[in-house]
Amino acid sequence: MRTLSAKFAIGQVVKHRLYPFRGVIYDVDPTFANTEEWYRAIPAEVRPSKDQPFYHLYAENAQTQYVAYVSEQNLLPDESGAPVHHPQVDAMFEPADPGFYKRKVNFAN
């Protein structure tokens, strides 16, 4: 059995490899853990393997903020140093090192 480890960390700012959005990771699934319907909605030519970590992001693009679920193969570190403006980021995290946020001590799930 192959052991998987996540390349990215909770609180890290990342960007999508193909699409113009970025966000802060707030949770990680060791392998795909969404619905088959969601998975099949991804075009076959860009559909990622299920056997890799998937990340939950507080995401944003130029128009809006939302929650995204993204495979590890489609993420890159965001090295812009720009803050993420998703409203949940301020509720759950505080700024840390460039490209990272840390979970607030008083945050409760």
Overall description:
Helix content is 10%, strand content 32%. The chain has 2 helices and 7 strands; from the N terminus they run ββαβββαββ. Strand 3 (54-60) and strand 4 form a beta hairpin. The longest helix has 6 residues, at 87-92.
Largest sheet: 5 strands, antiparallel
Tally of strands: 7
Ends apart, CA distance between termini: 32 Å
Q: Can you list the strand order of the major beta sheet?
A: 4-3-2-1-5
- The count of helical stretches stands at 2
Radius of gyration from the CA trace? 14 Å
Question: What would you call the shape?
Answer: globular
Query: What's the pLDDT, averaged over the residues?
Result: 93
* Proportion of helical residues: 10-25%
Q: What number of structural domains do the residues give?
A: 1
- Ranges with pLDDT <50 over ≥5 residues? none
Secondary-structure class: mainly beta
Helix/strand order? EEHEEEHEE
- Beta-strand percentage range: 25-35%
Structure at a glance:
With 109 residues, this protein is mostly beta strands.
Tags for this model:
single chain; 109 residues; mainly beta; two-stranded antiparallel ribbon; 2 helices; 10% helix
Element layout with pairings:
Elements: E1 13-16, E2 22-29, H1 36-40, E3 54-60, E4 65-71, E5 75-77, H2 87-92, E6 93-95, E7 101-103
Antiparallel strand pairs: 1-2, 1-5, 2-3, 3-4, 6-7
